TrEMBL record:
TM spans (from-to): 12-32
Domain called Rhodanese: residue spans: 51-139
Highest taxon listed in the record's lineage: Bacteria
SUPFAM superfamilies, sorted: Rhodanese/Cell cycle control phosphatase
Alphabetized InterPro entries for the sequence: GlpE_sulfurtransferase, Rhodanese-like_dom, Rhodanese-like_dom_sf
Protein name: Rhodanese-related sulfurtransferase
Naturally occurring in which organism (per UniProt): Bathymodiolus thermophilus thioautotrophic gill symbiont
Keyword list, A-Z: Membrane, Transmembrane, Transmembrane helix
Signal peptide range: none
Amino acid sequence: MEVLEFLLDDEQILTTVTLVILIMLLIGNVVADKLKKYEDIDVDAAVTLMDEKDLIILDVREKKERSAGYIANDIHIPISQVKSKLNTLDNKKKVLVYCHSGSRAAHIAGLLTRNEFEHVYNLKGGMNAWKKANQPIKS
């Protein structure tokens, strides 16, 4: 009871509101992570996945970013065009999505799963992680 009185005290109300917001954000992140239908994978898992013949490697970076290199045998569709070109991709195949750091790819991975793609993977860390792991880069 004393804790409740403390938290609702006029001098502590800002702290209480901040605490409630932080708890809600934490719960939201946990729930969102459980509901996402794609898998974040590291470079080693991506390399293993690339051994499969029915894999689409999708680069969603902008055209100018590709000049710094790309992963062999990928398909390049800039993030702004992915939605309009979904019908060019086979939703029965596994899809590995990558970008520069992984955040744009995660967005597109979510888009793909919402559009009936069943096996979608996001390269965690994107090309940054790929380069750091000394994986081959095409130019």
